[in-house]
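Many introductory courses stop at the sequence. We go one step further.
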Amino acid sequence: MKNKGSSCSCLVSGGAGFIGSHLTERLLNEGYGVKVVDNFSSGRRENLHNDLNNASLAIFDMDLKRESTRLNRLVQQCELTFHFAANPEVRVGETEPRVHFEENVVATFNLLEAVRKTKSPKTIVFASTSTVYGEASKIPTPEDYAPLIPISTYGASKLACEALITSYAHTFNHRALLLRFANIIGKGSDHGVIVDFIKKVRANPKQLEILGDGTQTKSYMHINDCVNAITHLTKRFLNGAQKVDIYNVGSADTITVKDIARIVASVTHHPEIAFKCTGGVDGGRGWKGDVKTMQLSIDKLLGTGWKPRYNSKQAVQLATRQLQ
């Protein structure tokens, strides 16, 4: 990434999605030209409403599972690609596993082929996930934890993408930064536990259903912190010499699903609402493939001199206020 005011163009796949749209806005504000590629299956143009008239933004309605010629041309024009296009819904894997294979793995392969055909060095920043670790025996979980045994098709698809990206980086002389995100929440999110709880409270203000046994414990990171971390790590990576690098991106603590329910109840002015846990599956999970306990070690991220502004509880409180 060059200095502000440069004509440098970045490609953001999934740039109309939740994280992608926030990242696109940040890149535009920092003076970069941005080419957004999105098939709008989950992304929305309204996510980019503040920037639709920005001359530095170009939006391409394009499906990475199928496109080739146009995609090749766009990738050729951009030295830096943020690959954030994916189907983010973990639960869909239980009923439609092909979705994760096509939307995540096939799409990534096609993007990498476009990168390869440019025959010039490129840098890819990939939005991966904590779910690649599966049920980690070491908590907090560091980047060098092994073996990686995902328990959801979503996690498996992201791990496959990581492998493809790193292999292309080494084989075809590109560079890759892999970012393994915790649960990212905030304005613009359209899925996840907070969105689910808010919808349920509106539908029934007397009782809030909690999937699983309510003890699921995970890290949550606000979208503002997430985008700050992405840009910080990208600039650091581009100024370095590593071929491939991996960072966990999240908060330094955790919060339980029941505590999230309490926050949602309080913020939505339903503090007396009754909670009903479904009991869940496989020892209290919300669904098949739901990791019961997740906390990423962010020591490597902190070691760069950057730290998140919000902890998990603060992130949940702020996100709930923004989403209600």
